[in-house]
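Q: What does the assembly look like in three dimensions?
Context provided by user:
Components: three
Sequences:
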Amino acid sequence: MTSSHGAHDTHAASGSAPADDNHLQGGGGPNPPQAPVAQPGESLAREAWRRLRHNRAAMASLILLVAMAIICIAGPWLLPWDLAEVDWENFGTGPTLANQHWLGTDANGRDLLTRTLYGGRVSLSVALVATLVSLVIGVLYGAISGYVGGRTDNLMMRFVDIMYSLPFMFLVILLMVVFGRNIFLIYAAIGAVEWLDMARIVRGQTLSLKRREFIEAAHALGVRDSKIITRHLIPNSIGPVIIYVTLTVPKVILLESFLSFLGLGVQEPLTSWGVLISEGTSNMQGAPWMLIVPAAFLAVTLFCLNFLGDGLRDALDPRTR
Amino acid sequence: MLSYIAKRLAMAIPTLLIVITASFFLMRVAPGGPFDGERQLPPEIEANLMAAYHLDEPLPMQYLRYMGNLLQGDFGPSFKYKDFSVTDLIAQGFPVSLELGGLAILLALLLGIPMGVMAALKRNTTVDYLLMGTALGGIAVPNFVIAPLMALFFGVILGWLPVGGWNGGALPNLVLPVVALAIQQIAYIARMMRASMIEVLGSHFIRTARAKGLNERQVIWRHALRPAMLPVLSYLGPAIAGIITGSVVIEQIFGLPGIGRYFVQGALNRDYTLVMGTVVFYGILIVLMNLIVDLLYSLFDPQIRYDD
Amino acid sequence: MTNTTPFPRPVRHHSLFKRAALTACLLTIAPLSMAATLRIDNGAEPGTLDPQKTSGVWETRIVRELFETLVSQDATGELVAGLASRWDLSDDGLTWTFELRDDAQWSDGEPITAGDAVFSLRRLLRPETTAHNANLYYPIENARAINAGEAAPETLGARALDDHHLEIQLERPTAWFLQAIAMPEAAPLPEHVLREQDERWVIPGRTVVSGAFTLSEWSPQDHITLEKNPQFYAADDVALDEAIFYPLEEASAALNRFRTGALDISYTSVPGGRFEQLRRELGETLRVNPMVAEYFYMFNLRPESPLSDIRVREALNLATRREVITDQLLGMGQTPSYWLVPRVTAGGAEGALPTAQMAMDERMARARELMQAAGFGPNNPLTLTLRYNTLEDHKKIAVALAAMWKPLGVDVALINTEAASHYAAIREGDFQLARYGMVATIDDPYDFLGSYTTGGSSALSSGYHNADYDRLVEQSSETIDPSARAELLTRAQQHLLDDYALLPLYDYVNTALVSERVHGWAPTPMDVHPLRYISLEE
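A: Here is the predicted structure of the complete assembly.
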């Protein structure tokens, strides 16, 4: 395993801490200026990209992820089998070179590799979209709630409590009743619940950050609230946010299989990694490849995401700039 | 502080009212009813059932009837489990779920936090990779895969532990389900802990503390740990509410009498009263847990105050 | 009754009686710690143990132990004397007379009387009781009107001639009525207890029962414990002291527990994907038997549905390779079906789809012709939606059907939903093809054929209507003579099949794990296994 932070072991530069010297000195200690300079967006991104490029593990992961996406998109065209094609001679046969089912077939005699690649299209796009939705809504919502505080915070967080408490299954069924069967609904439904945790985490970070001198200084200097939130609060919460994103992806991919169980997710013959894994689980002892193949694709994706996440975190850390 | 708690508790009432109302109508939009099953009932008999449960009344009427009963603390009888009231079912199952979930959370904190801290301290060493690789495994392998494997291996093949059953909560029966429940939480907590620990360790005040010659252990456990706990704390509020209300997967695989199944099966069976019971119960837990977390914030980070 | 079950039904239980009696004798001498406890996995948590409110086998399995019926079932499923020692039907087929045993007592020592039986039947038909199977008793005079709330329960055609004689007056002769009387719903209930409390009365410590066992513990989702009822009239023959029922839902969980010896019997179906392997490993303890239940697809026959065209229905039936489904996909011993009434059902309903005997390529050629005649083909495909409820096996079958019909130029869109939505769609006729399973309530073809008669549930859902069929089913129900009845049933079923009203796939099997320690357990088509015939080896 290569280092995920090989290129730079920084954090030595001055930076803001999630908590400050009050812990250490009972308050009143010297607080050095620590406002990260807000830079124009483009150079900020370019800077982060430069850092990321120097992180070998993150780059390798990024390349592998892109490759995974390309294989899932293009692969099915190159394989000899179709998604729904049944090989009546080979029901649930194991991986072999003999019959062109290199990774075996499922219980219906369909090629497992083909299905796993098709499933990857669904799972990767669900993961991408649902995670983005949860990221955007959750981070903004949490940051605003925490920063504005007071009654607004209270109201916004009670809305989050309400969303947590509503029975998810009926929310999903309602979506299905209102909008019909539509794969984009999966994204919507998943995004709609996954932003809640993110909002609570970012709010927690914001509550802690907003009394810091660099925020109060920016405030005193007349920097607009929206700018404080996007330029100071969010970048300084980026660590937990990125980690939580990498934790959200597997959750989202498996949640999708639950939606398919309800009838909202993908419909046969289309499939997804989550569906393949839960199918594989019921055949785990008799036909282990049905579980191992999709699980391996998922595991590789998660490992890559993990390293990429760590790399991104370092690259985006405002204190190392 | 006390006035803040009072204000929050007062807010809980309208919050729960919205949850109850929204859930009630949400549930009734879903196709199918409590008597839709493989055996289709003759129209006369279905009419008798609808009348007995007042389902033949207009929906707003039913809502008022439900709220009226609820105000008297009556959640009504379950549609599916006719010999028990919803209150009975939750009261009998919750202690089981609480015990399993509570132990799992405890285990997750006891293992997850040190794992995360250790990984952060030994960042980019073999120890880090080993710990985080293990954690990642816990995240990537869903519990519906790991739990049956554990039951098979430790229960059937090795015969060390019972493969399932509650048995009044005997310790050997607890081990497998608690571990299965905890695995994912350990992984989550370890990952989050590592990330925020790295952040805190790089911060100014920790470097100041080190410069002052405080020994490393003091720096970490006294000064770094608490602020680093913030994201974990935020995550734990809803997570605890979820875990102590049981997991349908774990309950089914190990045959345990918890309440996790009611959340899923109540909805699948359109057991309206049971669904509402679980919604109210879970809603109360969410409100309480998030309140506790918000209060703990100021304990972990004195700068967080809610007095404005 | 014509017995069509493929397995022998010798009167073997007499020797079991002896064995049971012997065990009971030994137990009276043996120390208390030798108590025989049978541990059963029941497959699900009972929703109720009120005999008149049950809706499934996971409830009746326990209820039958608590409440003895007038006519009971023995270990092989044959109807035998229960609380009634003998019964008689009048020549016009309208009046049943039951003579009750004079030594039968409730568990509180009160005598069980004909009055209790009348009370029970009236309660069963009251609308407020909401009995799911009340319609089985509609042949009784005034029963339907009472159940619809249009008549008082006292007007029911059932009366106690004296403490030990019950008379039931029917509106029309009904061939399967004795089967209904053998259902737990019709078991006499303790009037003296229920007059005090009618709701939630089957509770440990409060329940007064008539069966071989009493209810001693009920911990929801955990276990239910039954104890031997010393007041039971045949208590001397009951070998078990105790039976514990666990509500395991997960097949692999039940299997694991069975393998570690924590269960003696498991009724949760075994994991499908590993059946072959399990059969090798478990040997004789894995019991697979035909069951009175049918797996089929319902066609929507309404004019706006493409399946209103009989040629399309015939073609789909022709192109379905049922052997592939039963042997390759399921492989538990299910048998391909070309009919609605499972072959194991008593009553002798024969008949099959006309296409059953054709060779496969012949069938495909004919199917193509039919589709072409109906205006469909590879260039003008027929698009069909097929609904199934979420379950691994249902999915496998749906996927295979879509692939089998593809060569006919049929594009199938598969729609899976969770069960409640699925059955709601069927009830409302909102489907083209829908998976359906019918599990018998009584071991009689009427249970299946009746549902496709006008007003029956399947007819309401599918839009099927055939006056000749209705008439034949009604006649068969009113014909008491077994062979004349069998012929009518066969003719009725053939009408339904000639109309290609449905797509039958297979006759179900039930699976059970029965430890070698258990004696007296026999396979039965209705999956009824009274514990009073079961004993445990030390």
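Follow-up: The longest strand of chain C covers residues 286-299.
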